[in-house]
What does this fold into?
Amino acid sequence: MKPINKLLVVLFIFAGVTVGCTEEPVAVLEQPSTDPNLEDGVAAGSPLYLKVGVQWESADPKSGFERMGNCALPVDATQGSTVNCTVSIPEGQLYYSNVSFDVGTFNANSCPIVEFRPYYYLRSNTANFTPPGETAAIDCSLLQDKKCWGGAAPTLVTDFPKNTGYYFLTLVNATANYTLPSENKTRWYGGDGVNYLAANDLSLASAIAPVATGSQQRVGQVALDPNWYGYQVNCTDHWARVLYTINLTIRDENQDNSHSGPEDELTDWF
It folds into this structure.
């Protein structure tokens, strides 16, 4: 497992830097495609892809993950290409499920390094911040305590915020898996019944304004320091030049077509 130092992430922030890991991929509850142009639902030969799956926290770990969406660069994508995709997951299932991210390439020669950075944001930069569900205040003025931050990265990245993601060399391993435990299990938001741990569907307009209280508390965006970083997968070359990028938005789905009227039992950003 190779972490990327936060300082390097800051240097490449406008290039969209990310990172990677070397855990074994998990099984997926999906029939293999018979289309010769597809490999497990992704275009064969794609230089960069991301697959998102969920597994109920109470399920047998060997039962595999249910695929919720794929994001991939086309086979003939030109260098510098970016794909933006949104994956919607039923809000109750998202809250009680582990979320799996499989990232990789089908063409290691065109994608030497894959970087994965989970989404995160700054909850507080004050010296007297009480995280959701806790009674003791912590000092967030130096931004060194991971509880000063929200989102997936503080849980997924062991030494966050020193490092904000992972990378791997595709000639060694062409794919890697990262699994985020459920919010119901982690209680990063103190059991408030929200999907802020995995869902990152906050609009840019909303991200600019700070929120001072509650489990939604966050520091607003300011110039050159956004304080909000979405899920991102990058392919880079040996000179750290970004070749391909995937930006992912995870949204909790509030209802299906069998219901009428608005519903939102577990709050996300949208």
Remarks:
- The longest helix spans residues 6-11.
